[in-house]
Specification:
The strands form 5 sheets. Strands 2-1-11-10-12-13-14-15 form an 8-stranded mixed beta sheet, sandwiched between helices. It is of the alpha/beta class. β23 and β24 form a beta hairpin. α3 crosses α7 and α8 packs across α9. The protein has 14 helices and 24 strands. Among the domains are: 144 residues, Rossmann fold (3-Layer(aba) Sandwich), CATH 3.40.50; 66 residues, ANL, C-terminal domain (GMP Synthetase, Chain A, domain 3, 2-Layer Sandwich). Helices cover 28% and strands 26% of the residues.
């Protein structure tokens, strides 16, 4: 019998729910998984999920991956993602989250930066051979010794994890791991370039609690997650909210509005986690009108400077929570409590979870720096990762030099309301949905295409910015950028706008 500890880990939270309700529905795949990855969609109870987790954990240990080594994941929004995260943690490994749109150039830099020992991917995601991407990246990363994948027709040398789950041995009960050890590594883009950001289990759970408690999700919630899990905020708002609620996590591979509504209706989802811009568009278009079970929408703002100017939330019977995201530094949430449906005013200083409860424990603190920027501190904020105390090649949790992290977002205090107004993102950094780029890097890549080529960022209401490019021959530019192994957001910036290549 699993004995819970005072400081739970990811796996500890899962086992608590498993012990209480092994036959309850735990994980549900996207309806269109066959299209996304070539595999049939599945549903797993907690007991079935536990066996899959135990089999993969045993495989990772048998493969010789030592405790606290790093295993990188680049997976679609399917049940394999949370299963692999939990399996890695049960085996005592640290999980690095690789954004799905990263290609060869970004993968090799990130994997070398953290010294990853293994990588897990899929045969296909949206028609792209991510298995080949993983194999090619692993060939240029000396530290990688183990490459695994889900799906069929995997390249030679890639271990099929579907077979491991179906036929492999299971890991016997083990002692709980230390919640103070590194659990997750995500990647941020700062003025200095790509930064690996490690967090302990406790850091991660603090972030999950901030979302879970502020949004007032019920115990046993059926959570429809249309937010990818390849970032701190993504995994905190989805996987950890699921584990904290002890309910069902229904995954949606972004984004198909009709399929989202079909999933929500079939499983009577009461909670939706989605990018805030998408939630606002669905509300304006009446997309929630036929979802009678829906009670909570968690909207993630990767452009927090846009929250104050966002429209009122129009759905009376559904509670909306704004979650402000600041790269990989941290987050805070605020439910819209007023009858007018507009965002809640955010005051500087300590805040609880939930925010409006004076008796709630402190979740973090918002600081306005003398430079006129917003800083965060608290149990979820990985201060050491953003200070000189942490070497770029060292993922151990180092002693911080300061007690807060400057997010770089310009902010001021409103003279009338005394609330914080976030006015601009960090200079020199472009955010396109969940992806951040240095503006200088965009120009550097454009220059490699020859004279007259240009790559720029244009404002976009839903994603913050969108990329647009110009070259003498757009089709040739797309091919060149693809060969260089660049993110498809850059490649598609040079799409043909006349309908002819």
């Amino acid at each position: 019998m699993f004995q819970p500890t005072a400081s739970p880990t990811f796996d500890g939270l899962f086992r608590r729910v498993l012990a209480r309700q092994p036959d309850a529905l735990a994980l549900v795949d996207p309806i269109d998984k066959q299209r996304v990855t070539g595999q049939a969609p599945r549903r797993l109870t907690y007991a079935q999920a536990d066996r899959a987790i135990a089999a993969m954990a045993a495989h990772f240990i048998d493969a010789g991956l030592p405790p606290n080594s790093i295993i990188a994941l680049q997976l679609a929004n399917t049940i394999e993602f949370p299963l692999t995260v939990l399996a890695a943690h049960r085996a005592g490994l640290v999980v690095a989250l690789l954004p799905q749109l990263w290609r060869h150039a970004e993968l090799t830099v990130a994997l070398n930066r953290i010294g990853a020992r293994a990588i897990v991917s899929s045969a296909l995601i949206d028609g792209v051979s991510h298995a080949d991407l993983a194999m090619n990246a692993a060939a240029e990363v000396f530290s990688i010794r183990h490459v695994c994948g889900f799906g069929s027709n995997l390249p030679e040398g890639m271990v099929p994890l579907d077979d491991v789950i179906a036929h492999g041995d299971t890991l016997p009960p083990t002692m709980p791991h230390d919640a103070r050890q590194a659990a997750i590594i995500s990647f941020d883009t700062t003025a200095q370039g790509l930064l690996a950001v490690p967090r302990t289990h406790l850091n991660m759970i603090a972030g999950g609690l901030a979302v879970f408690l502020e949004s007032a999700m019920p115990q046993g919630a059926t959570i429809l997650a249309a937010q990818t899990m390849s970032s701190f905020a993504g995994i905190a708002a989805t996987t950890l909210s699921w584990l904290l609620s002890g309910g069902t996590l229904v995954l949606h591979h972004p984004f198909d509005e009709q399929l989202l509504q079909e999933q929500a209706t079939q499983l009577r989802c009461d909670t939706l986690v989605v990018p805030a811009g998408v939630a606002m568009r669905l509300a304006e278009d009446g997309g929630f009108a036929n979802l009678p079970a829906l009670r909570h929408v968690v909207g993630l703002w990767r452009t927090p400077e846009q929250v104050a100017s966002s429209p009122a939330w129009p759905v009376q019977d559904v509670q909306f929570t704004d979650v402000y995201l600041f790269g990989e530094v941290g987050l805070f949430g605020a439910r819209r409590l007023d009858d007018d449906g507009f965002p809640t005013l955010i005051q500087p200083g300590p805040y609880g979870a939930p925010r409006n409860d004076a008796q709630s424990p402190i979740a973090g603190e918002i600081v306005l720096t003398p430079e006129g920027t917003l800083a965060l501190r608290g149990s979820m904020v990985p201060v050491a990762a953003y200070t000189a105390a942490a070497s770029e090649n060292d993922i151990r949790i180092a002693a911080p030099q300061t007690n807060h992290v400057d997010t770089g977002y310009a902010a001021r205090i409103d003279r009338t309301t005394k609330a914080i107004c976030i006015t601009a993102p960090p200079p020199g950094i472009v955010a396109v949905g969940g992806y951040r780029f240095l503006a200088d890097d965009l120009q550097a890549w454009a220059k490699r295409l020859g004279d007259g080529a240009m790559l720029t960022a244009l404002p976009d209401r839903l994603s913050g910015y969108r990329l647009a490019g110009r070259a003498s021959e757009n089709s040739r530019a797309r091919g060149a950028l693809t060969e260089l192994g660049l993110n498809p957001l850059m490649v598609e910036a040079f799409r043909d706008r006349t309908g002819h290549d």
